[in-house]
Write a structure and sequence with these properties.
The chain contains 12 helices and no strands. By secondary structure, the protein is mostly helical.
């Protein structure tokens, strides 16, 4: 991997981290299109630069993120991810991260679920600003965490899983989207931290430079992506994202597999 490739993957990560399209799938696909060798560093790079996009959330949602009541709910939602993630880490890193067939079908099936869900789902009536994250119960937090755990499979999309889960539980769209943003912080910190601990000794000094560059690009683009997504959900649903997932999945199925 060289610096231009690191910048491109950073842009892809920043654009897709918070959208229901799977940033992991898009980074892996982008790497394959640029003929980047799928070695241990590439896999680590694709995980760690997500911290750049997550840092944008920390800055934009600093007060909500470090609110004690919200922290408690995030911890509850994070528990299923910790248990399932640590248990299946080796399987995912070794066999699923570069499995294009798994990614393609995850994109297609996830896209179909998004479309069907939006056609059948009716949002709770919005009344003023509402109580936001305060309206989420601890039981709902646990269920949202279970939905998020599905995203351990590349292509599923952490954002899509948590948002659909929250909407299915009866939460308001803006509430679950913001909670999904906040839940990304401990989730990606844990995933990236675990990967760095296991693989830091194999990363060279020049590769740390690539990680830093990808991190910075993902941070800048990720912040813009968050602002776009919040404006988008106030006017539209997720059907276009579902259609996009199916379209790109079918295109990959025809031309790459």
């Amino acid at each position: 991997m060289h610096f231009i490739q690191a910048i491109i993957i950073g842009i892809v990560e920043g654009l897709t981290e918070f959208l229901p399209v799977s940033s992991t799938a898009h980074m892996i696909i982008a790497s394959k299109l640029m003929n980047i060798k799928p070695d241990d560093f590439t896999k680590t790079f694709e995980i760690v630069i997500q911290l750049g996009a997550i840092l944008a959330v920390v800055i934009l949602y600093f007060k909500k993120l470090f609110n004690l009541a919200n922290i408690k709910k995030l911890v509850v939602a994070f528990i299923p991810t910790v248990i399932i993630g640590f248990t299946l880490y080796k399987l995912v890193k070794s066999y699923l991260m570069e499995n294009l067939t798994v990614i393609i079908w995850s994109l297609i099936i996830g896209g179909l679920i998004l479309v069907v869900f939006e056609k059948l789902h009716k949002d709770k009536e919005e009344t003023g600003e509402g109580s936001g994250i305060a309206e989420i119960s601890y039981r709902q937090c646990l269920y949202i965490g279970l939905f998020q755990s599905l995203a351990i499979v590349p292509g599923v999309s952490r954002s899509a899983a948590t948002i659909i889960g929250g909407l299915a539980l009866g939460l308001k769209r803006k509430t679950i989207v913001e909670f999904s943003f906040l839940l990304a912080v401990p989730t990606m910190l844990a995933a990236s931290g675990l990967d760095l601990i296991k693989n830091a000794g194999t990363i060279s000094s020049s590769q740390f430079g690539l990680l830093g560059l990808g991190f910075l690009v993902a941070f800048i683009i990720g912040g813009l992506s968050v602002k776009f997504f919040l404006k988008y959900i106030q006017r539209y649903n997720f059907v276009p994202f579902g259609v996009y997932r199916v379209a790109i999945g079918l295109a990959l199925l025809l031309f790459l597999v």
